[in-house]
Amino acid sequence: MTPTAAADGGGELGYGTLVYALGSHGDDRGVPGVAEHAFDVAARPSALHLRERLDRRGGGGNVLVVGDGLTGIETATEIAESRPGLSVTLIARGELGARLSAGARGHLRQACDRLGVTVLEHTSVEAVEATRVRCADGTTLASEATVWTAGFAVNPIAAAGGLEVTGNGQIVVDRTMRSVSHPNVYAIGDSAYALGDNGRPLPMSCASAGYTGRQAIEAIVGRLTGRKIANTKLVYTYNHISLGRRDGILQTVDDEGQAKPTYKGGWKPARIKAGILKTALWATSHPTYGMPKRKHRLAAAPDASRREGARVAA
């Protein structure tokens, strides 16, 4: 359908079914200076911008990684391993690896020691400046590059468009990833507030994106063709953390999302994670791979009177 052009450069595009997959972006959490001075790795352009900055630093300098979640841990260890001349510090609000089992936490600390990553626990950053960060306890830390990994947020478009969302802006969906307020809209990935098979919300992750995406496909094809809609699994069973390219942690979790006592660490988890990333990169460059080859006949012609409009930026 051809969009209707608007004088301001925008346009309106009608749809019968909309899949909302805008994902998430870095959350500055209202901390002054993050938007102006910090780097993030939530998207390819911003990650490349960080790489350019590190390239200009040459063989030395201080890099601060703010945030001790999985993204922060992976970022700090990757930079430390690939650029051994840099001094890398990981700033954690609480205990490093608090969500991991005791054994996995020990493995993580050994990896940080081996790679020369300095860990500052129970430290909060209250402002980011061009060449330093200011902590809540009054101390300042010099930094040639500050990487912000202290959380993720979703785009406010869904809330602004009138869809039912949670407090953080995720679209509330049913078991088939269909918006509970707008039946022609499906949300997948980080944008969706979806309950897993254990009754708990799926966390923002690439694994959740894959599961919710498959469920949405089943639902859309089923409803358009009149077929029974299959329920795909919606699970979150492990955290897979890379610690550079030659080390990693595979931490399984229970139905409550808590770490199980056992874990696997070393080169095998690292190779598995590398394979996952390589597959994901290949899939993004081959978007039609895996698409259904059999054509299904629509159960009924779409009712134009029920179509909704979506205003999109040209």
Automatic annotation (TrEMBL):
Keywords: FAD, Flavoprotein, Oxidoreductase. Residues 304-314 have a biased composition (Basic and acidic residues). Signal peptide: none annotated. Residues 294-314 are annotated as: Disordered. The keyword Heme does not apply. Its EC number is 1.6.5.-. Its cofactor is FAD. One of its GO terms (molecular function) is oxidoreductase activity. InterPro entries: FAD/NAD-bd_sf, FAD/NAD-binding_dom, NADH-Q_oxidoreductase. It comes from the Bacteria. Residues 9-209 form the FAD/NAD(P)-binding domain. The keyword Zinc-finger does not apply. Pfam families: Pyr_redox_2 (PF07992). It is an enzyme of class 1 (oxidoreductase). Belongs to the NADH dehydrogenase family. This is NAD(P)/FAD-dependent oxidoreductase.
